[in-house]
């Protein structure tokens, strides 16, 4: 935001100390603070002609510029008064009041020429103040304008002559306003009323003469210079403000104490300057602000003091160098500020930094372009780009350093407990290397999971791990020495795990394939399920039949034992039967014995045989029941099992033989019972 400067009163800008012009540093400091465009109005004229009074009227304050009330020149050098422009918002009005020209006390008019030249060089509106009408005397007193070609250069080229150089004055010189004080004549030409401007134009007409040509040219030189140097001209005429000695009291008099026409004419003068005075401009349509006006003052004064001629081109070039250098620094400072504000170092990626750089660079370039002008051969633009690149490199290095610091601190924090375990020798054992590597992987994952590590994350990690290579190699060497076989086993295990993982993957792929096939063959799912249940049922029945077969084998074995016992019993019965036959034969042979004795014995024998037969019958019944159960079980056996069961068939045959014998014995016993006397 532009700063408005309110000076309480005027201040000397350029001091005139014994003919030596010196810029006042305090006044230059005030100009440095004015960032608004400036409208500069300077006034020049003979001493004691009321210049300061008009400046005070423009300032709207009394007292202001010192008026003085004697014949002695009161203003020395060039005085300055700055305040906000009364009509143009955002602009500052700078009034320059100069010391009077033609002061007899100075003796040398060289100083007056420089004051006149500086007033023209520094202003955008140049007011020339004189007394009375425009006559030859007044024209002669304006001889300073004819000496401008000897005092000012527009270009620095040594090959350019004065005529060509002066032709360019019109591009840089201010508007010209001639103020005629104590003007008592009537504004008429050939009996017709005319304006003050028409009066000025008529007075500046070149004189036509029949005398010496050089003399006429010399007389017309001021008019020629005014026409040539100042294309825009304005004239004001003022009545005498007061009469008599009151002129010396102008500073204390109020408007009602002055001539009304004079008051009106001064008001018209001030209104014109407020509305028509332009901003001070440099070549290239560059508006002048306070710092630029300060640069012009310093450049022109230093040039005059050095004995050289003030050069407009050099002054603008010096100003451009100063401002362009300042523009470079301002733009670089803005870039630096924006980068520091927007960047959070370290950035996660390089692109993040470059995005902020591009945005800040764009703003910095805009600031440089707005504050620079006349950058010949783009010297300062090149300097700006170079410094910008340097700044970018600095931020890249800062970002890398911040990333390195952050990552290193993070690694130390994560790995410190691990390193303590290494120092304690936890990993110097068989299998320690595997544990060491596994733990390192876990810590690396923890490191990777941490945010905002920046662009050096991987490089710092690798360097950190490389710094641990000696420890890693030592642990590996010890592990190899202690666990050569275990390591080989580990390799095999890993291969097996890999193979298992491969098989698992294949199995999973197979399952997926089967699922796809099952999805396509939904209609067969139920059949497959039933078939599976049937197979399981058959397998269960086979297992049950196998168990039953084993039980039958055991029962057959037991039956064989019973049959063996039965055979023994039968053999005993046969032996007894044989004995009975023998006894019967003996009985037949022993006729001498009593029949009763024989019957009794025979009855006992028969009873005993019958008892034996009952026992055999019971055993037979039991055997038949067992055989019946076996037959039921054998029916359910497969054909193969039936063929293999030949022992059962033999047992069956033996049972049949025993049954036949029992039948035979029963028949014999029955016969004995029916014929008890047959023995006798």
Automatic annotation (TrEMBL):
<keyword id="KW-0391">Immunity</keyword>
<dbReference type="InterPro" id="IPR015894">
    <property type="entry name" value="Guanylate-bd_N"/>
</dbReference>
<dbReference type="GO" id="GO:0003924">
    <property type="term" value="F:GTPase activity"/>
</dbReference>
<dbReference type="InterPro" id="IPR003191">
    <property type="entry name" value="Guanylate-bd/ATL_C"/>
</dbReference>
<dbReference type="InterPro" id="IPR037684">
    <property type="entry name" value="GBP_C"/>
</dbReference>
<dbReference type="GO" id="GO:0031347">
    <property type="term" value="P:regulation of defense response"/>
</dbReference>
<dbReference type="GO" id="GO:0071346">
    <property type="term" value="P:cellular response to type II interferon"/>
</dbReference>
<feature type="coiled-coil region">
    <location>
        <begin position="477"/>
        <end position="675"/>
    </location>
</feature>
<dbReference type="InterPro" id="IPR036543">
    <property type="entry name" value="Guanylate-bd_C_sf"/>
</dbReference>
<keyword id="KW-0175">Coiled coil</keyword>
<dbReference type="Pfam" id="PF02263">
    <property type="entry name" value="GBP"/>
</dbReference>
<dbReference type="InterPro" id="IPR027417">
    <property type="entry name" value="P-loop_NTPase"/>
</dbReference>
<feature type="domain" description="GB1/RHD3-type G">
    <location>
        <begin position="35"/>
        <end position="278"/>
    </location>
</feature>
<keyword id="KW-0342">GTP-binding</keyword>
<dbReference type="GO" id="GO:0005525">
    <property type="term" value="F:GTP binding"/>
</dbReference>
<protein>
    <submittedName>
        <fullName>Guanylate-binding protein 1 isoform X2</fullName>
    </submittedName>
</protein>
<dbReference type="Pfam" id="PF02841">
    <property type="entry name" value="GBP_C"/>
</dbReference>
<keyword id="KW-0378">Hydrolase</keyword>
<keyword id="KW-0399">Innate immunity</keyword>
<keyword id="KW-0547">Nucleotide-binding</keyword>
<comment type="similarity">
    <text>Belongs to the TRAFAC class dynamin-like GTPase superfamily. GB1/RHD3 GTPase family.</text>
</comment>
<dbReference type="InterPro" id="IPR030386">
    <property type="entry name" value="G_GB1_RHD3_dom"/>
</dbReference>
């Amino acid at each position: 935001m532009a700063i408005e400067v309110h000076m309480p009163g005027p201040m000397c800008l350029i001091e005139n100390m014994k003919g030596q012009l010196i810029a006042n540093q305090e006044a230059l400091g005030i100009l440095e603070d004015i960032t608004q465009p400036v409208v500069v109005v300077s006034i020049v004229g003979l001493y004691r002609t009321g210049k300061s009074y008009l400046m005070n009227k423009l300032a709207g304050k009394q007292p202001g510029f010192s008026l003085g009330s004697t014949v002695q020149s009161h203003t020395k050098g060039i005085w300055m008064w700055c305040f906000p422009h009364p009509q143009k918002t955002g602009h500052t009005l700078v009034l320059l009041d100069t010391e009077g020209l033609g002061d007899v006390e100075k003796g040398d008019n060289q100083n007056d020429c420089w004051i006149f030249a500086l007033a023209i060089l520094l202003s955008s509106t140049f007011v020339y103040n004189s007394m009375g009408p425009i006559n030859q005397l007044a024209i002669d007193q304006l001889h300073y304008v004819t000496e401008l070609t000897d005092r000012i250069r527009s270009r620095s080229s040594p090959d350019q002559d004065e005529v060509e150089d002066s032709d360019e004055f019109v591009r840089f010189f201010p508007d010209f306003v001639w103020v005629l004080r104590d003007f008592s004549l009537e504004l008429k030409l050939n009996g017709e009323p005319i304006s003050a401007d028409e009066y000025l134009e008529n007075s500046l007409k070149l004189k036509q003469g029949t005398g010496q040509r050089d003399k006429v040219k010399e007389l017309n030189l001021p008019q020629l210079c005014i026409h040539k140097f100042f294309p825009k001209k304005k004239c004001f005429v003022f009545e005498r403000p007061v009469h008599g000695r009151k002129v010396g009291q102008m500073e204390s008099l109020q408007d009602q104490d002055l001539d009304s026409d004079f008051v009106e004419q001064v008001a018209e003068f001030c209104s014109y300057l407020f509305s028509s005075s332009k901003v001070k401009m440099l070549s290239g349509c560059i508006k002048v602000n306070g710092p630029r006006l300060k640069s012009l003052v310093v450049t022109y004064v230093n040039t005059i003091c050095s004995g050289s001629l003030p050069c407009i081109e050099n002054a603008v070039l010096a100003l451009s160098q100063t401002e362009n250098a300042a523009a470079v620094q301002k733009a670089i400072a803005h870039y630096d500020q924006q980068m520091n504000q927007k960047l959070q170092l370290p950035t996660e990626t390089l692109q993040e930094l470059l995005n902020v750089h591009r945005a800040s660079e764009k703003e910095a370039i805009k600031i440089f372009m707005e504050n620079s002008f006349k950058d010949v051969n783009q010297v300062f633009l090149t300097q700006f780009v170079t410094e910008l690149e340097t700044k970018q490199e600095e931020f890249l290095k800062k970002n890398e350093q911040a990333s390195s610091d952050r990552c290193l601190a993070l690694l130390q924090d994560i790995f410190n407990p691990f390193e303590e375990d290494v120092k304690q020798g936890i990993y110097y054992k068989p299998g320690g290397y595997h544990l060491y590597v596994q733990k390192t992987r876990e810590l690396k994952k923890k490191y990777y999971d941490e945010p905002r590590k920046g662009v050096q994350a991987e490089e710092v990690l690798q360097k950190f791990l490389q710094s641990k290579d000696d420890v890693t190699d030592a642990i590996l060497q010890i592990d190899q020495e202690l666990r050569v076989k275990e390591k080989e086993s580990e390799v095999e295990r890993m291969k097996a795990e890999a193979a298992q993982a491969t098989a698992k993957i294949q199995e999973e792929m197979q399952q997926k394939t089967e699922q796809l096939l099952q999805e396509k063959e939904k209609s067969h799912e139920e059949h497959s399920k039933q078939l599976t249940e049937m197979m399981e049922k058959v397998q269960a029945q086979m297992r049950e039949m196998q168990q039953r077969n084993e039980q039958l084998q055991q029962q057959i074995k037991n039956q064989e034992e019973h049959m063996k016992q039965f055979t023994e019993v039968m053999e005993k019965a046969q032996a007894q039967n044989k004995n009975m036959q023998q006894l019967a034969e003996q009985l037949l042979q022993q006729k001498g014995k009593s029949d009763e004795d024989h019957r009794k014995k025979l009855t006992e024998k028969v009873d005993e045989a019958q008892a034996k037969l009952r026992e055999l019958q019971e055993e037979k019944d039991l055997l038949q029941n067992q055989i019946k159960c076996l037959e039921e079980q054998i029916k359910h056996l497969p054909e193969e099992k039936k063929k293999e069961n030949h022992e059962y068939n033999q047992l069956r045959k033996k049972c049949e033989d025993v049954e036949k014998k029992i039948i035979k014995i029963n028949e014999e016993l029955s016969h004995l019972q029916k014929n008890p006397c047959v023995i006798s």
